[in-house]
Amino acid sequence: MNSRAEPPAGTAADAATVTLKDLREGQRAVIVRVGGGGSLRRRLLEMGLRSGTAIHVEKYAPLRDPLELVVNDCHVSLRVSEAARITVEPEDPAG
What we know:
By secondary structure, this protein is an alpha+beta fold. Strand 3 (about 55-60) and strand 4 form a beta hairpin. It has one domain (about 15-90): Ferrous iron transport protein A (FeoA) (SH3 type barrels, Roll). It has 3 helices and 6 strands; from the N terminus they run αββαβββαβ. The chain has a 6-stranded antiparallel beta sheet. It is globular.
């Protein structure tokens, strides 16, 4: 039996989630899950990247790495490889 609390696979929410690295500049989303392990995950959580937190992709660097986010009115830069560990649900573009 799996001891980690994971949402059930195959739910409607799965289809609407992507990783943070897949978002475009100016796009907003809500964090669904912070992956990674050990010190990386701890650092992300300490920077305010937690489930349920709204984020905004401010911009990408010219070579697309790193990316700059706005989290709780703070600007945070992440490597694309770190952003790939964060699952988000993009905000509806119509809303």
